[in-house]
């Protein structure tokens, strides 16, 4: 399909709307629009944009009745695995990004590590770190690499 021109956004449902929005703002996203859709039981939704790489995150309140993969997470439930594996941001320093995210409310998952991704033709070395956002999604901080 050659009609696709690029990536626009990913959307998440926030257990704690304000805390989740604030966390992404610490990752240099800024609010560009907000709305509600009573017909979908959506009280609050916000579109955040990171101008550095021209991408968006849509954050909706936990009561929204949107189609989604998996079951709705209940208060106090552990992270529920689904088809969204992680959100990846490129960074200059994966270790610094890891500690900054934790300082701003993320939970540690994997401090900076270097991995060799090999196949029969070539090997690519990556350096990354991983955190759980305050909302539970996995965020990867990946240092520049060419695949």
Describe the structure.
The protein is mainly beta and 147 residues long. Helices cover 14% and strands 43% of the residues. It contains two helices and eight strands. It has helices at residues 17-26, 94-103, and strands at 9-14, 30-37, 42-50, 55-61, 87-91, 107-118, 123-132, 138-143. The strands form two sheets. It has a four-stranded mixed sheet, with helices on one face. It has a four-stranded mixed sheet with strand order 5-8-7-6. Strand 2 and strand 3 (42-50) form a beta hairpin. The longest helix has 10 residues, at 17-26. The radius of gyration is 17 Å and the shape is globular.
Topology, element by element:
Layout: E1 9-14, H1 17-26, E2 30-37, E3 42-50, E4 55-61, E5 87-91, H2 94-103, E6 107-118, E7 123-132, E8 138-143
Parallel strand pairs: 1-4, 5-8
Antiparallel strand pairs: 2-3, 3-4, 6-7, 7-8
Short summary:
By secondary structure, this protein is mainly β. It has 2 helices and 8 strands; from the N terminus they run βαββββαβββ. The strands form 2 sheets. A 4-stranded mixed beta sheet has the order 1-4-3-2, covered by helices on one side.
- Order of strands across the biggest sheet? 1-4-3-2
The DSSP helix count reads: 2
Low-confidence runs of at least 5 consecutive residues: none
* Class inferred from helices and paired strands: mainly beta
Features:
2 helices; four-stranded mixed β-sheet; globular; 147 residues; mainly beta
